[in-house]
Amino acid sequence: MHESHEKELRLALVCYGGISLAVYMHGITKEVWHLARASCAEREGTPLTSVYREVIEEIRDRSGLNLRVLVDILSGASAGGINAVFLAQAIATGQSLDPLTAMWLDHADVEALLAPTQAPSHRFAKIWATPLAWMMANRSHTIDETVEVGARTEVREKLERFVRSRWFEPPFGGEQLLNTLLDAFDAMAKGPAERRLLPDGQPLDLFVTATDFRGHHETLRLNSPPEVTETEHRLVFGFSDHGRGTGFADAAALAFAARATSSFPGAFPPLMIEELDKVLADRGEHWPGRDAFLQRALPEQWAESRAEKAVLIDGSVLANAPFAPAMAALRERPARRQVDRRFVFLDPTPDMRFDFYGPRQERPGFFSTIIGALSELPRKQPIRDNLEAIAARSDRIERMLAIVAEIRAEVEAQVESLFGYTLWLDYPTPKRLAAWRKRAQVAAAGKAGYGHTAYALLKVDGAIDRTARTLQALGGQQDGQRLRTLGGQLRETVRMRGADRFGASLPGGASPEALDFLRGHDLGFRIRRLRLLARRLAELEQSAPRGVMRPMRDAIYGALAAYLELKRSDTFADLQDKADGDTGALLDMLAERMQLRTLDRQTDEALSAGFSALSKELRRPMLLAYLGFPFFDIATLPLLQGEGMDEFDPIRVDRISPEDARAIRTGGVASMLKGNQFNNFGAFFSRAYRENDYLWGRLNGADRLIDIVLSTLDAGARPDESRIAALKRRAFHAILDEEAPRLAAIPGLIAELRSEIG
Question: pTM of the prediction?
Answer without folding.
Answer: 0.84
